[in-house]
From TrEMBL:
HAMAP family: RsxD_RnfD. GO terms for biological process: electron transport chain; transmembrane transport. Its cofactor is FMN. This is Ion-translocating oxidoreductase complex subunit D. One of its GO terms (cellular component) is plasma membrane. The complex is composed of six subunits: RnfA, RnfB, RnfC, RnfD, RnfE and RnfG. Its EC number is 7.-.-.-.
Length: 343
């Protein structure tokens, strides 16, 4: 009997979807707290606004599709998409930017393909890439740590009053990309965006997301293959092209692991069971591909951090990876041998 070859998207059983989503939300808490500690109310505003927009948009589309609204909202998938997207957006993003990104993620990244378990691309990354390409200035305006008060931040979010010039600064990845004259030591000494190993503040944020990711790994919500594939390949690529502290250095392995959205991507994005690869080998290859693309985009591409683009490109490759890494069918060789003996 011929069995169908099925590639992604893949959805888990619906009876455990809500539990999985709640665990994922719980695992994002360390990273959300670290971002809030560094940047203040901006991250909380992103989370609240994105969550409200995601639930409202999902409810509206479900109503248009004549599907039971409450049943699908309770699975928590829309809320997870909103939270991951909100954590990736710069704090104090204008309200309309968060609205556009979240609505696009739900409509074009999820519901357009039939809803949960049907989307071939990661919805949060689709929303992020759309606003990154459309509004590059707003998407690269990251505030200095501990520099914005609650009142000033809310005015910035809702466009009541702009913050003073200089409140935002280039991130460590931005600064390293355009540096061609200072050594790494000089750049770190002169630029407040650099921390001890990665970006200032980004080191703690990445460690917080690492802690949340290890919690999910402990709960066996996903296997280690995709995260390890991404992180190991990113570290290897940066080690190969790293020349120490010269002016044309592209950053040490530790710098790349603790800067940008590395850990958020490794444990919360590439582990998406719907848009990723299926087999263990396939997940390893999928994660490795993301790691390579992240380094290539960071170093030679037009954007300082390439996690979202890398994930979407590998989402395209997931069906091909599944085709060439599908596991051997149980009993296939024995049956084949018996058929030859019968001849």
């Amino acid at each position: 009997m011929a069995l169908p070859r099925i590639t992604s998207p893949h959805a888990k059983g619906s009876n455990r979807t809500q539990r999985v989503m709640l665990l994922v939300l719980a695992a994002t808490l360390p990273g959300a707290l670290a971002l809030t500690w560094l940047y203040g109310v901006g991250t909380l505003a992103n989370l609240c606004l994105a969550s409200a927009v995601a639930l409202a948009t999902e409810a509206a589309i479900l109503r248009l599709r004549q599907r039971p609204v409450l049943f699908f909202l309770q699975d928590g998938s829309a809320l997870v998409t909103a939270v991951l997207l909100a954590l990736a957006l710069p704090p104090y993003s204008p309200w309309w930017l968060t609205l556009i990104a979240t609505a696009f993620a739900i409509v074009f990244g999820k519901q357009l393909y039939g809803g949960l378990g049907q989307n071939p691309f990661n919805p949060a990354m689709i929303g992020y890439v759309v606003v990154l390409i459309s509004f590059p200035v707003e998407m690269t305006s990251w505030p200095a740590a501990h520099s914005v008060g609650i009142g000033e931040g809310l005015k910035q979010i809702f466009g009541i009053a702009a913050l003073p010039d200089g409140w935002a600064h280039a991130t460590a990845l931005d600064s390293l990309k355009i540096n061609n004259r200072l050594t790494m030591d000089e750049l770190r000494a002169q630029n407040p965006a650099f921390g001890q190993f990665g970006g200032a503040g980004a080191e703690w944020v990445n460690l917080a997301f690492l802690a949340g990711g290890l919690f999910l790994l402990y709960k066996r919500l996903f296997s280690w293959h995709a995260p390890v594939g991404m992180l190991a390949t990113l570290a290897l690529m940066s080690l190969i092209f790293w020349n120490g502290t010269g002016s044309d250095t592209h950053g040490s392995p530790l710098f790349h692991l603790l800067s940008g959205a590395t850990m958020l991507g490794a444990f919360f994005i590439v582990t998406d069971p719907v848009s990723g690869a299926t087999s263990q080998l396939g997940r390893l290859i999928f994660g490795a591909g993301v790691g390579i693309l992240v380094y290539v985009i960071r170093t030679w591409g037009g954007y300082p951090d390439g996690v979202a683009f890398a994930v979407l490109l590998m989402n395209l490759a997931a069906p091909t990876i599944d085709y060439y890494t599908r596991p051997r069918t149980y009993g296939h060789r024995k049956a084949e041998r018996g058929f030859k003996l019968g001849e």
